[in-house]
Amino acid sequence: MAGLPLSFAEPLLLLGLVSLPVLWWLLRVMPPRPRRVEFPPTRLLFDIAPKEETPSRTPWWLTLLRLAAAALVIFAAAGPIWNPQTGVAAGKQPLVILLDDGWSAASSWDARIKAADELIANADSDRRGVALVPLSEPARDITLMPAGAARVALRQLAPKPYSIDRVETLATLGRFLKSTGDCDIAWLSDGVDTGRGSEFTEGLGKVIESRNLTIYAGGAQSAQALVAAENAAAKMTVKVLRTESGIAAGTVRAVDAKGSPIGEARYAFGPQERETEAAFDLPVELRNDIARLEIAGEHSAGAVQLLDRRWRRRAIGVVSGASNDTAQPLLASTFYLSRALSPFADVRLGDRGAPQQVIGQFLDQRLPMIVMADVGTLSPEIRDRLNAWIEQGGVLVRFAGPRLAQADDDLVPVKLRRGGRTLGGSLTWEKPQHMASFAADGPFAGLTVPKDITVSRQVLAEPDAVLATKSWASLEDGTPLVTGEHRGKGVVSLFHVGADMRWSDLPMSGTFVEMLRRLIDMSGYTSKPGPGVASDPNAETVAPLRTLDGFGAFGPPPATAKPMSADYRDRGTADHPPGFYGTAESPIAVNTLASADRIAPLDTSGLRAKHATYTNAEPRDLRGIMLSTALALFLLDAIVVAMLGGGLAALIRRRAAPAVIALAFALVVFGPSSTRADSAADDFAIKAVSQTRLAYVVTGNADVDSIVKAGMSGLTLFLGQRTALEAGDPVGIDPARDELAFFPLIYWPIVPGAPKPPQDAINKIDAYMKQGGTVIFDTRDAVEAPPGDNGSSQTPGMQTLRELLSTLDVPELEPVPREHVLTKTFYLLRDFPGRFNSGQTWVEALPREDDEESAQRPARGGDGVSPIIITSNDLAGAWAIRPDGQPMLPLTPGEPRQREFAFRAGVNIVMYTLTGNYKADQVHAPALIERLGQ
Hints:
Layout (H helix, E strand, L loop, with lengths): L5 E3 L11 H9 L31 H18 L2 E3 L12 E5 L9 H17 L4 E5 L12 H9 L14 H11 L3 E5 L3 E2 L3 H12 L3 E5 L7 E8 L4 E7 L5 E8 L5 E9 L5 E6 L3 H4 L4 E4 L8 E3 L8 E6 L12 H9 L4 E4 L5 H10 L4 E5 L6 H12 L3 E5 L2 H5 L19 E13 L15 E6 L11 E5 L4 E8 L2 E6 L14 H12 L19 E2 L1 E5 L5 E2 L8 E2 L13 E4 L4 E4 L9 E2 L8 E3 L7 E2 L1 H23 L1 H8 L1 H15 L5 H15 L4 E3 L4 H21 L8 E3 L11 E5 L9 H12 L3 E5 L17 H10 L7 E3 L26 E3 L6 H5 L12 E4 L3 H5 L18 H18 L2 H6 L1 H9 L1
Parallel strand pairs: 3-4, 3-5, 5-7, 7-31, 15-16, 15-17, 17-18, 18-23, 33-34, 33-35, 35-36, 36-39
Antiparallel strand pairs: 1-2, 2-32, 6-30, 8-9, 9-12, 10-11, 10-13, 13-14, 19-20, 19-21, 21-22, 22-23, 24-27, 25-26, 25-28, 28-29, 37-38
Helix pairs in contact: 1-2, 2-13, 3-4, 5-6, 9-10, 14-15
């Protein structure tokens, strides 16, 4: 119904709505005019105003009320159904169900199965045969089966973890339709085009001819996918794909090989964007541990990106045999190599020490790849270590130069030509040569051959029978530019030109960067690393270790999974489903989508078809609701008529007491069940427990409260900057009204002459301190104390505090001793200054120990935290910070680091209340060990 999920069982009854205008006219018609009879005495009554008046016609709003009730009755009689079942119409011909069952169908698989089950149930009631055609199985025979058998076959289906090729099923479907004849076709589509979508819809239109086709799409969760994960220099990024438009956001999770979470990254789509990016800003050590990226809440193999060693940010050592030219660093070979390698790896330059010494350090660091630029003669020990490292999987990349041309070692993939020199030779052309091609089976296959790169000098290879098989890049005259060889589990590669601009301008090109990137991808494997070692007849194959199912969950490999070559770098297929292959120590990842794959919405506009949507809601009959609403409107109409006619007023006059009782009962029953006070208490509790928060007592003095609030906020900010505690904004409390148990620490500024809190508030404070809470009482009047030993106890603030504590169960107090744990909780402190530094700080007195034992212990703490701390140094005044970051109040006497030590005192107090006396246990470690030894 006009885009709404609403239908009617008897839509013809809606014609009754045409009668509503007639009903309107009947309700608005005037009653017959009364006959007038002249009766002179009645003139005496003309001047008396009647208490009640009857309108001459029905009010318009009352007429509208009655019409609404009548319309609801008509709608209810028509049988309204919300979320009706849509799809294939009833009939007797067979039903063919085409089912998309690739990875893109997994996110809405339940809705797809439910729609297919409803189609099969309707076919069962119509006694129709059913043919179930999963589009991922083109070789599967299509046969008609009873509805019961089709339902069993449907439950056995599951989404595949790879992209399906729908086109391959057209031939089998065409043969079946020719043999079956007329039938209804329902295509349960996932709406995703992963390739050849237009070709399938065009072929499907030809195959079904004039048969009825219903396409299910929409109304279910759309598919999202991950592709092109890249571990860049500063962060790891991955592209997120979708097919729908509109604003959307989500989260990509990163986990390691054991399934432990490493991090999360948010992504967001613009209104028309179908591709966005999620970035993990993590240290490189954590990024290298990521084995799986997945979209949170998206259950499909396409929403998972598996990572192996190719995605690790590898450390690559670069060593040059040339002398460091500090005067012209831009001409050094290490400059071009570091610029080309840094986007894909962490480059470690061996620019200090002899080349052989640097190579030894790189081997000790177990780097997966070493680049040697014009490194000549190597010692036998270094050559042996390099050969062993290559056999174990290392990748050695060498660049030619004058030193290599004169050297003699076997760490090159081909034999270098001897000609007039001890080993190898250099050839100089008058006419520079251009690059000609890349080997089709080498690591650089697929790269565009640049036409602007020239080579003016190179080291030549000795021609032999296998030279062509080891050539990865060649010049126009056929001489190799880059050669490579597989040795054991590693690779040796040689660029026959230098890494600087003296012999060639290759290092200045973008092709140079891509060539080195391909070589980086080959490093770090214990199995054969990717394409590149040509004509190796013993190419290693790896068996599936564990694979993904269509929902993106790991499981054992299916029986149809086959071993693959270790250099397999394509997307997942039926033969090689997505997952990990090889050994558990060095697995190779195969993903559902390749880096260059993209998804698009499937265009079915070219098909002559009926469209339906998936629905997760059950059909709902609205007749009961509409009839109940109509009855309520008729009841309201009766009440209104009684009020207009005066009957209700007369009833109230005669039955005043019962009416008042009924009204009061209605207010009690239907009135609000909760109070604003309860709601405020709930809000306060939620705010208090959502984060660790410090609290302060609101005194009612606006100046004091503003300073204390700023001070507690300043201390909270300092805690976030200097410690791991990320506390929330401080909370002002009223001890008589608010719950205190939510806060570990309460700061109470004493205002001289302030009235004593009620006894209920005192009792709550007493209970709070006995249950582990700590209260700081700050009289803020250290500079007002008169001289003398008892001067601090004579201040107005101390007198007010003494009166407040008179009914509290306060423990014995003592000034903070030098060895108290409070002085060592976070910072090492001697005293606890605030805005003033002349006042003492008092805490609960601890049991004294004998002098010999206490002398050996640098800290002393009791069994718990002191429930009360008393000071007069105005701590909050020193902590108070203005919005611009400047102190709010000056200090007395204003020593250079007094405010810093005031903040440190606050940190120690907070950490003391949060962690207790554990610091005392740590510093007691020597004494404890000594006692255990005894």
